Amino acid sequence: MPFEIKRVYWLYDVPEYQHRGGHAHRTSEQVIICTKGLIEVHLESQEGEQLTFKLDAPKFGLYIPPYWWGTMLFVENAIMIGLASDNFSEDDYIRNKSDF
Fold first, then answer.
1. Cα(85)–Cα(100) distance, rounded to whole angstroms?
2. pLDDT per residue over 9-18, tens digit each?
3. Which of 30, 37, 47, 86 is the most exposed place for a label (fewest CB within 10 A)?
């Protein structure tokens, strides 16, 4: 892990083809792992670079640094675990894309 884990969370029972995320973090780093199903992850940098990843096996994790806008599409009854470098703080979130 490229950081000390301070928070662990998971997302499950997300309806099929629903998007989650839709935000960026100011300081928090994360690694996300799809433990079941398929998650399509779309990331965008502040410079406009766009990347897409498909997570479909628990042996792979995706590192997301601060200041990357992330959206996840949950497919096939997906379950995701997230490992974060910081404890939860609403102040760390950038939720309005125009502020990003």
1. 20
2. 999 999 999 9
3. 47
